[in-house]
Amino acid sequence: MPVGTWETSYPFNLIEKILDVKGPAFLCDEIMRDESPEYVQKSFYYNILGHVNPEQFRGKRLLDFGCGSGASTMVLNRMLPDCQIVGVELESRLLDIAILRAAHYKIQGCTEFMLSPDGNSLPNDIGEFDFIFLSAVYEHLLPKERRTLLPLLYRHLKPDGILFLNETPDRWFPIELHTTGGLIFINYMPDVIASSYARRFSNRKLMKDDWPTLLRNGIRGGSVGEIQKILEKHKYHPIFMTPNHLGLKDRIDMWYAESSSKSRYLVIKRLFYYFSKLIKVVTGRIFLPTLSLAIKRTAGD
After folding, report:
1. Average per-residue pLDDT for the chain
2. Going along 120-226, which residue ranges are E strands?
3. What's the rounded Cα separation, in Å, for the pair 242 and 258?
């Protein structure tokens, strides 16, 4: 149970729906994702507005791909009230929660939800978008789905449009925090060995999970190199943007700004911030536990 208690403004029917779909262990966590300004909203604030001024979203279209139960869509709607937001999700039971959330906030017109026909395509006539957002989604795509869906989404992005990707574990970080709860060096192991290692030593009781299940749960994360390789294979020329708003100079600043107000492990986070800066100076590489990317489609693509 990530969160034990939460005081909410949600009506009873919405709470009951979340309880029915998510179960008691994740009831408070799911509500908190929407209502707490220190949860999803803070991550979005730095990931989006660290790259783009809010005025640039006025009158534009944004796709919230893999919107789940609509917490991310509600946060985006509050942050970008003049932007048309379309949430797409594969599971209808999650969209039921999203629709109830929109009704709770009396959101009309500028936000809509669509059910994806299958895991490898988008709804018909969905159109093009100025911005596409994947929040905690990419890591849950299987390798084949990544090679299919990423170019598909990119094709629906307008020239000079931006694809945001955040809350995805870095594939090459030494500690796997997302799925196994902190196993070291598993990201460098071959799949067969990593599967056995995760099921045997993780404290999250993964003994019954086979490798496809672990992949679906996000064990392999993602990397800039993988994303770039997939897009370039389809003759695209993605530009990986550097954050330069809100006082940010790089992704390390963005990670620290997002995480530094959280009370846990503040000293460790600050030490890691300086360590990451040193790694960048010495090697030119960004060394962080998660990816928060803004990828711009060039006008010629």
Report:
1. 94
2. 129-135, 157-169, 175-176, 183-184
3. 16
Q: What pLDDT, in 10s, does the model give residues 115-167?
A: 999 888 999 999 999 999 999 999 999 999 999 999 999 999 999 999 999 99
Give the domain extent around 43: 39-171+223-248+292-296
Q: Is 205 exposed, middle or buried (0-12, 13-18, 19+ CB in 10 A)?
A: exposed
DSSP state of 298: P
Do 73 and 152 lie in a common domain?
yes
Residue 187 forms part of a structural domain: yes
Q: What's the mean pLDDT in 208-217?
A: 96
Distance CA 247, CA 251 (A): 12
Q: Which residues contact 109 (CB under 8 A, 6 or more apart)?
A: none
Domain count, the chain: 3
> What would the 3-class secondary structure string for 238-296 be?
CEECCCCCCCCCCHHHHHHHHHCCCCCCHHHHHHHHHHHHHHHHHHCCCCCCEEEEEEE
The pLDDT assigned to 110 comes to: 74
The answer to whether the predicted template modeling score (pTM) of the entire model surpasses 0.90 is yes
Pick the closest to residue 163 from 179, 152, 178, 174 (CA basis).
152
Helix, strand, or coil here: 227? helix
**Residues 47 and 125 occupy one common structural domain:** yes
Q: Cβ atoms within 10 A of the Cβ of 153, count?
A: 17
CA-nearest of 13, 126, 3, 12 to 64 is 126
Distance CA 125, CA 15 (A): 33
Domain check: are 178 and 243 in the same one?
no
3-state class (DSSP) for residue 160: strand
Cβ neighbours around 51 below 10 Å, total: 22
Q: 5-22: per-residue pLDDT in tens?
A: 999 999 999 999 999 999
DSSP 8-state class, residue 220: T
